Amino acid sequence: MTEQNPINSGFGHATDVDDIIKDMDLSGKNYIVTGGYSGIGIHTARALAMAGANVTIPARNKEKAQASLAMLSGNIEIADMDLGDIESVRKFAREYADTGRNLHGLINNAGIMACPMTRLGNHWESQFAVCHLGHFELARGLEKNLKQAQGARIVALSSTAHIVSDVHWDDPHFNTHDYDKWQAYGQAKSANALFALGIDNKWQGDDVRAFSVHPGGIFTPLQRHLPEEEMVAMGWKNPDGTMPERIAKMFKSPEQGGATALWCATSPQLNNMGGVYCEDCDIAKTADENSERFQHARAWIGDSAKAERLWEMSEKMIAQE
Description:
By secondary structure, this protein is α/β, with parallel strands linked by helices. It has helices at 17-21, 39-50, 62-69, 86-98, 126-141, 143-147, 181-203, 228-233, 245-250, 254-257, 259-266, 304-319; strands at residues 30-33, 54-59, 75-80, 105-108, 119-120, 124-125, 152-157, 208-214, 277-279, 282-283.
């Protein structure tokens, strides 16, 4: 397993997707980007296509995706898929698998954040279902295509919000304890990181490596469930809707926000590595007493026993759906 320590990549907080793909030729390679028609995902997809890759974007709203991607050049195709519907995920994965294409990269970018309590599937809490379970089943359905690529990578979009909460192991769907939207988001992002660790442990012998990513603070449609007054209370916005200077320095543009995932999916600097949490286009430090609350990797997302427990728990949930 790769150590959770920076490798001094030479990139940083201000790196954007164009910096990552500069002089990179991805011709003939195939990538899937969930949520690739909105927010940071559209910039990730654009950069991959500009570098010559074939990019598939599964979308819950195909018409919206077509409108968003209409101005992009390159080989981009859109397919139907709803991460909150396991049968929809299986159908997309089955149809993609049947093409026989090698899949060089799966970027699990789509997600929802801090939304009101909603249940999907078999009474699942929606953030855990969409951010984790849908992507979990997607990766499993594409296993053959990933392994036959002989050097594939999976990138799971986690977040600094993993710091808020480990997985609520005894009650991940808030059936017996009160729902808290940030606890639910935090556990979903911890699950994303543990999924990357788990799949890296399981599939690295077939040359499939996985990484989890904190993209950075970015204003995108991900905040659609947050009222303005809550963002003001959190210090993300001023009462007049402008951005405080401190936040302006800390937050990234969507182009910068897509850079770490793109780096993890494509950079030769990460050859023969995997299972780690990355931020600012480098492997993140393991958190210590000097870490800010929004920095670095907390211990539980690097725990292989927890990654295996999550894998087994997720398989059982999906089998009962």
